[in-house]
Task: structure prediction
Amino acid sequence: MKVLTISTFDTLGGAAKAAYRLHLSLLENGVESIMLVQNKNSTNNKVLGPDSRIEKIFNLFKPTLDQLPLIKYKSREKALFSTSWLNTRSIVKKINKMNPDIVHLHWVSFGMLDMKSISKINAPIVWSLHDCWAFTGGCHYFGKCEKYKISCGTCPNLLSKKQKDLSHRIFKKKLKNYHSHKNISIVGLSKWMQNSAKESCLFKDRNVINLPNPIKSKNYKPINKKYCRDLWNLPHDKMLILFGALNPTSDIRKGFIELVESLNLIKEPNIELVVFGSSESTTFNKFTFKTNYIGELQDDQSLVSLYNACDVTVVPSLQENLSNVIMESLSCGIPVVAFNVGGNIDMIDHKQNGYVAKAFDSQDFAHGIEWILKSSDYDSLSQNAREKVLKEFDEKIVVEKYISLYKSILTTN
Result:
């Protein structure tokens, strides 16, 4: 069985990392797996990137070119909106020439694949939804809008007042081209994403299942806290709150406003914040306690040691699919506080391995942080966090489910 994984990136960003982890798991389990990406960062010879220097340079401009149709919507929201208008026939020719048994799509925006090209892929398609883009008119998360269920238009993301706006045209183009490919199976990484995809008229007649991302729990594991704090030069006499922040104020969905409100409600004086993914800036000068800036982390080992150095991880996202940060933190035995949105409840069992705060309620979020930090049975929370991942998300369990899916598709094809 030959599986071709398609992703815009191989290791850059949460969706890419999840796709890459699955690719590696398939290889380890004897599946002939190849990954085709628009921008290659790894040195893995089973990951294929641009064929030439010219193509590599052109690919760097594709995300900007993809945004050109948005020029007329100058007052639109900051949230990511992908048009996928660029012609990508050359990629499809490459895909079909490789003649895979299964084409597994992951995150394919920024000019990786346009809708018409997807319809021209010869092999059966499995599409893992890392966000909502595949079944909307261009937004990656729909917020409170439900127009994706019927047909997009008057898009709140574009701040458009026209029914037949860009989002409507993209939606109609998707409807036409998806219909042209008879064998597309949809994977909602979380139960919330699965249900959302089923509600869209783009996928209502497709096979939509729920399968999570895998994680290598033998790498993401508990390590001695004292050692990890020494490694990062973090204090031993403080309770440390971990927050992953890559451009935290660029997207309202990330919940930075709610995080600030929550942390400023905490009365516990013996705490410090640890921030990774963002360098020191005025963004975090809103807190009354010390903030430790780690910067961007490029490898798993650094992430593992940082998770283990802290006492609780906070994920304040207002809409979330299946967060890598939550899964990684739990796998390291570190409880997580997050809002009751999206796929968070797939991973966090309230007051068992973390705290699920009422959606968008900063006060309850703050209460959850304090509840974990002051828990008299913190060790049980930590153990439960680790066991949750081992039972439901470990790569050995998850990859078998994907292999079974591939085989069932090929058997009925």
In short: The two ends are 14 Å apart (CA to CA).
